[in-house]
């Protein structure tokens, strides 16, 4: 019945069309935050950031860059995480969509530790943040594009990269299909929500990416609810 999920969908999402936008997309970004809270989308992000921070020796200061941030809401949890550990954190939110940047700037307008700018993950500077994150961004890429995207993020980090995205599974697809229709009438949400699961990943997809990342180590962990936390760090230099 769900054999269509055996392969990643190649169909683009409505949100991938930068020519679209306006009030309907702005509403979709708000409704997407509802879905992300329901499905605990920030969990893999916190798992990855905390693990990289610990592996780096628990530095007292940390810079985080979220590439393809959307509204960036998950970074509220990053700020809470930093407060609980006494870490002086600065967060940069980057998205290519003007609507996303506007919504992120509105959401964090009273937070001096967060800055927002419009840009693309392939335009990031070399080692411009300690940890670079990308949440629910990679399922927008075709399989052949994933290694270059992962490398772009890894090269922009000094400690490592946290990629968190959706597990392509029939339970996740059914849950998102139903929830999208319960919480929103927005066309973007109802179309792109289930499609994003169909464009999601299984562990073998991530292994293929890791095999093409010479000089970097990729580790993949399954996290609730039907997410993957993928960490990319530089391979230790041999003496």
UniProtKB/TrEMBL annotation:
Instruction: Tell me the GO BP annotations in alphabetical order.
Output: methylation
Q: What is the name of this protein?
A: Methyltransferase domain-containing protein
What organism is listed for this UniProt entry? Answer: Paenibacillus aurantius
Q: Which key words are in the record?
A: Methyltransferase, Transferase
Pfam families for this protein: Methyltransf_25
Q: Does the keyword Iron apply?
A: no
InterPro entries reported for this sequence = Methyltransf_25, SAM-dependent_MTases_sf
Task: List residues of the Methyltransferase domain.
Answer: 64-155
Q: Which GO terms describe its molecular function?
A: methyltransferase activity
Q: Which domain of life, per UniProt?
A: Bacteria
Tell me the CDD domains matching this sequence. AdoMet_MTases
Q: Does the entry feature the keyword Ribosomal protein, yes or no? A: no
